[in-house]
Design a protein that fits this description.
8 helices, elongated, single chain, 6% strand, 49% helix, 3-stranded parallel beta sheet
Length: 186
């Protein structure tokens, strides 16, 4: 809406095991963001904006220095910064105090899950006549990402066996795989 480009920060390209390199990489990004008028986007922000720890060794000292440097650069940045995380409580309070907005995205309700199931499974998918999307949406209280992942897993199974139809048994197996990632069972 603002007409500005959003620059997604790839943590694997920023964080370095060598002392001072992470800060150097951040400096380059923030300088370019300023010159290009970018909106910065940090996904999985808790990995970078984590709570500082008590300094027990050199590793802790340098990790805390990186966090402090990032805090300083964010303070100086004149554009919007967006952070996404599933672990808000792991963000250092020094960062949280500086947020102007915190937007919580709750788990989707049944009507939203219905739309997600319908959009995740293409209309031309060979489907058993007894498969009921409304029932899936009511029965499985899962996130949008879990629905997308479960649907993708089911579609791959169908690609492996072109004679198979998408049915409740297959969807249940896909959903079970997703909730198992959280240590839960159906």
């Amino acid at each position: 809406k603002s007409g500005r480009e959003v620059y997604r920060i790839d943590l694997s390209q920023i964080v370095s095991k060598y002392i001072g390199e992470t800060e150097k990489n951040f400096a380059e990004i923030f300088n370019r963001a300023h010159d290009q008028n970018w909106i910065l986007f940090f996904d999985e922000a808790d990995a970078l904006f984590g709570k500082r720890t008590e300094t027990r060794d050199a590793h802790d000292k340098y990790a805390n220095q990186e966090t402090s440097y990032l805090l300083m650069r964010l303070e100086e940045h004149n554009g919007p910064v967006i952070l996404a995380t599933n672990f808000k409580d792991n963000i250092d309070p020094a960062f949280s105090r500086r947020f102007t907005q915190i937007i919580y995205f709750p788990q989707p309700q049944a009507d939203e899950r219905l739309l997600l199931w319908k959009s995740a499974i293409p209309a031309n998918t060979p489907t058993d006549a007894n498969l009921n999307y409304e029932e899936l949406a009511r029965k499985y209280e899962i996130t949008g990402a879990q629905i997308v992942n479960a649907a993708a897993w089911c579609l791959l199974r169908l690609a492996d066996d072109p004679t198979r139809l998408l049915d409740h048994e297959l969807v249940r197996a896909g959903v079970a795989r997703e909730v198992a990632k959280e240590g839960r069972t159906l």
